[in-house]
Structure to design on (213 residues):
């Protein structure tokens, strides 16, 4: 083997190694989202942790990590990571909404509401989680016994996503608790139209119908 051949062989080997390394890193970066979509949340979090160690300013890793943490019911960790991500990218609306969700599940109603309000005020109309944010806002208002406000928020939620039976049930409940019985029946009826076997909708409609007699 000549010196020239050895030199070319080494150069080609280094190039191949570099290409493979870049490819492996690319696959690794994609793995977190794939793992999340497959319901493998702890593994998705672990991949995101590694990505953030390699690049602390990688916002996408914070986003996928927070999705996985919320789905895995690790709400304190999700709150901490969303806050860390927002220090990197203060105007990332995905992290804003995720912080709201984490705080909602932690029972931090005011903190969650602040994030959801910020989200709906700035998110685009299409391809966003505006409906979900309104739904959570409605649930917070129900927790606070502010049923008229809950009606407004949940009405906005079902306008965005009208095919979710659970949201119609909660809207019916908010209206029921506010004493708006006719409107409550309409919401429960829509829930039953979407899912005729909904026990919560059927029970709610029965309660309200009794009050209207």
């Amino acid at each position: 083997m000549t010196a020239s051949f050895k030199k070319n062989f080494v150069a080609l080997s280094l190039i191949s190694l570099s290409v493979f390394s870049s490819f492996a890193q690319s696959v690794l970066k994609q793995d977190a989202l794939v793992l999340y979509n497959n319901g493998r949340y702890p593994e998705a979090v672990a991949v995101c942790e590694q990505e953030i160690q390699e690049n602390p300013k990688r916002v996408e890793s914070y986003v996928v990590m927070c999705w996985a943490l919320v789905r895995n019911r690790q709400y304190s960790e999700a709150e901490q990571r969303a806050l860390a991500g927002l220090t990197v990218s203060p105007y990332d609306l995905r992290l804003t909404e995720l912080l709201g969700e984490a705080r909602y599940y932690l029972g931090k109603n005011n903190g969650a509401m602040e994030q959801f309000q910020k989200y709906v005020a700035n998110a685009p109309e299409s391809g966003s989680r505006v409906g979900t944010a309104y739904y959570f806002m409605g649930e917070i208002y129900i927790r606070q016994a502010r049923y008229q406000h809950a009606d407004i928020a949940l009405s906005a939620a079902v306008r965005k996503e009208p095919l979710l039976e659970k949201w119609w049930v909660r809207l019916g409940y908010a209206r029921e608790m506010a004493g708006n019985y006719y409107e409550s029946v309409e919401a429960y009826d829509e829930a039953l139209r979407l899912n005729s076997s909904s026990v919560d909708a059927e029970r709610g409609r029965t309660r309200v119908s009794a009050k209207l007699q």
Q: What stands out?
A: The mean pLDDT is 89. The radius of gyration is 24 Å. DSSP finds eleven helices and no strands in the chain.
